[in-house]
Amino acid sequence: MNTRKILLKLGATCEGFEWAADKPLREAWETCHRGDWMLWAAEKVSV
């Protein structure tokens, strides 16, 4: 599953989706400049 599909499934915000959708998942995580997005993602996948 690619980043775009994962973000759609999790219900990402438009801003977060636009920023990350075209990046590989690992790159999106490693270069994310928004801690709140990272916390949101971690909560969504039950980390």
From TrEMBL:
Protein name in the entry: Uncharacterized protein
Organism: marine sediment metagenome
Upper lineage: unclassified sequences, metagenomes, ecological metagenomes
